[in-house]
């Protein structure tokens, strides 16, 4: 009987090991000012142990170089084939800059409401974030945009997606797809995320 239970225990450990091998780790990359408690990124973070927020040293006057180094350090100890980045607003540009700089291949990235840094009204102090990179991203990406986002027109968001090689999803009038626009819990966003693997 003891031998039977030892066999079952070993099988269970093997199954757990198998699940750990295929587990996806979701790294959240907020935009300018971080994402507050009611933001969908925070709800994502609280939805499971494998959602991890990347905390930047400076949220309000960020430097691109610092942000992308922090992203790279955050995922350094993980199997990149199991990593998905989740960006919002300026976080999308940080991910695109990281992809261009490091040329690493991860499982994918969800890029929500990428701000247009070249728009006249974008006057924040964001060193190194002077334009949106247009280089093709070498892993699967999905851009989710709104048709009435004050920080990026739908045309520009689609232009970014085309250049990055991203799937493009227009979710209609959804503002900047943030807490102010009513995007706290966002089940549809999780559904879109799951399509990345």
Describe the structure in your own words:
With 197 residues, the chain is of the alpha/beta class. It has a single domain, classed as Alpha/Beta hydrolase fold, catalytic domain (Rossmann fold), CATH 3.40.50.1820. It contains 6 helices and 6 strands. The chain has helices at residues 2-22, 40-45, 64-75, 90-102, 154-164, 187-194; strands at 25-29, 51-53, 83-88, 108-112, 141-145, 167-170. A 6-stranded parallel β-sheet has the order 2-1-3-4-5-6. α2 links the parallel β1 and β2 (51-53). The longest helix has 21 residues, at 2-22.
By CATH, the topology is Rossmann fold
Strand order, largest beta sheet: 2-1-3-4-5-6
- In CATH, the homologous superfamily goes by the name Alpha/Beta hydrolase fold, catalytic domain
The separation of the N and C termini measures 41 Å
The top-level CATH class is Alpha Beta
Oligomerization category of the chains in this entry: single chain
**Whole-number radius of gyration?**
18 Å
Mean pLDDT: 91
């Amino acid at each position: 009987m003891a031998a039977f239970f030892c066999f079952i225990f070993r099988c269970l450990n093997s199954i757990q090991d198998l699940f750990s091998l295929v587990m996806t780790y979701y790294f959240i990359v907020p935009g300018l000012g971080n994402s507050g408690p009611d933001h969908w990124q925070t709800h994502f973070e609280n939805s499971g142990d494998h959602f991890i927020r990347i905390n930047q040293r400076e949220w309000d006057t960020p430097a691109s170089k610092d942000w992308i180094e922090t992203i790279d350090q955050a995922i350094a100890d993980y199997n990149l084939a199991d990593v998905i980045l989740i960006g919002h607003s300026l976080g999308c540009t940080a991910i695109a800059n990281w992809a261009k700089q490091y040329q690493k291949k991860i499982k994918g990235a969800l890029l929500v409401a990428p701000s247009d840094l070249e728009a006249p009204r974008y006057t924040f102090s964001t060193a190194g974030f002077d334009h949106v990179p247009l280089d093709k991203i070498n892993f699967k990406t999905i851009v989710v945009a709104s048709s009435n986002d004050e920080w990026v027109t739908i045309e520009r968001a689609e232009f970014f997606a085309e250049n990055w090689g991203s799937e493009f999803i227009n979710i209609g009038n959804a503002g900047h797809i943030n807490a102010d626009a009513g995007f706290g819990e966002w089940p549809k966003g999780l559904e879109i995320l799951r399509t990345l693997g």
